[in-house]
From TrEMBL:
This is RND transporter. It comes from the Bacteria. It comes from Pedobacter cryophilus. The lineage of its organism: Bacteria, Pseudomonadati, Bacteroidota, Sphingobacteriia, Sphingobacteriales. Keywords: Membrane, Transmembrane, Transmembrane helix. The chain crosses the membrane at residues 12-29, 49-70.
Length: 79
């Protein structure tokens, strides 16, 4: 069974809502880490960088899946 491009986008959205934003309160973890990094990243440990990557992989997957899905739709409409 092959996944359709729209299935990849749906999966990416689920991953973003779960892994990409947890913990939800008081501020999503990935936003907190990005803010910390943009302020200079003082006192960030290796684990903090790994955590930042882990929580942002779903967002990168969403971007790539959406671009792929849009390109696929564009090619299908031209045929």
């Amino acid at each position: 069974m092959r996944f359709k491009p729209s299935d990849h986008v749906k999966l990416a959205l689920i991953l973003c809502v779960t892994i990409g934003l947890t913990p939800y309160f008081p501020v999503p973890h990935s936003f907190e880490k990005l803010k910390w990094l943009l302020q200079g990243g003082n006192d960030m440990q290796a684990l903090d960088y790994a955590d930042l990557v882990f929580h942002n992989i779903p967002w990168l997957y969403l971007i790539v899946a959406t671009i792929y899905w849009l390109n696929t739709r564009k090619k299908e409409s031209l045929v």
